[in-house]
Amino acid sequence: MTQDELKQKVAAAALDYVKDIPLIGVGTGSTVNYFIKMLADYKSTIEGAVSSSVGTSERLKKVGIPVLDLNEVGTLDIYIDGADEINPRKQLIKGGGGALTREKIIAAASKKFVCIADGSKCVDVLGKFPLPIEVIPMARSYVAREMVKMGGQPVWRENFVTDNHNHILDVHNLDILDPIELEKTINDITGVVCVGLFAMRPADVILVSQGDEIKSW
Ligand SMILES: O=C[C@H](O)[C@H](O)[C@H](O)COP(=O)(O)O
C-alpha cells in the first residue's frame, strides 16, 4: 500500500468516531484532508466544525460543512487531527503544515482527541522530525539562540507565514526524552507563541494504518 492509501484508510477509520456527533474539531494536513472529503457523506449528522486552519476551513466549506467559531461553541466532543510523530504515550509532534497553534487550542478545548496517521509516524522517542515552534516575528532570532543553547539546530521556515501572521522555526537534532518538561521549557521562552509538542495534552486515541491493519491505542 502507498502512503497515500494508508492515509485514506486511517481517515476512513476515523469516521466511526464522528457518527451522531453534531459539532467536531478538524485538524490540518494531508491525512485530515482525506477525512474531510469523506465527511461529505456524513453531512446529515454533522452540523458544523471548528477548523484549525484557513486551508481546512476552505475544504470544510467545499463539502458543505459550516465552519464555526470556537468561542461560540464551547467544549467540543471530538477533535480529529493528524501528526508528524507519535510516541507510545500518545504524545505528538505536530506543525509540519504550520497549523500547530490553532490545533493545540482545539485539542485543549476538546473532550476526545483522535489522532490519525500512517504507520511511518510512529517512533519510540520524539525528535527525529524537526520540532516546529511558532514565534512572534521579531523574536525569531532570540528564540533560535535559546534553542541552540538547548542543543537544537533551529531552521527558519523561510517564505512561510502562519495563519496567525507569525514565523516558524523548525528545530532539528532534539532528542526529546522528557516531552512534558521540554514543552514547558519552550513555552516559557519569551516570543514563543506555541511549540508543536503535544505532551501535556496528548491524544486520547491513536489510530494508525499499518499494511491492512488499523492499530489503535
Ligand atoms: O500543521 C500541521 C499538522 O500538525 C498536521 O497534522 C501534521 O503536519 C501531519 O500532516 P500530514 O497528515 O500531512 O502528515
TrEMBL record:
Species: Methylomicrobium album BG8
PANTHER family: RIBOSE-5-PHOSPHATE ISOMERASE
Annotated substrate binding sites: 28-31, 81-84, 94-97, 121
Chemical reaction(s) catalysed: aldehydo-D-ribose 5-phosphate = D-ribulose 5-phosphate
Class of the enzyme per the UniProt entry, highest EC level: isomerase
Active-site residues, record numbering mapped to chain: 103 (proton acceptor)
Protein family per UniProt: Belongs to the ribose 5-phosphate isomerase family.
Name of the featured protein: Ribose-5-phosphate isomerase A
Cellular component GO terms held in the UniProt record: cytosol
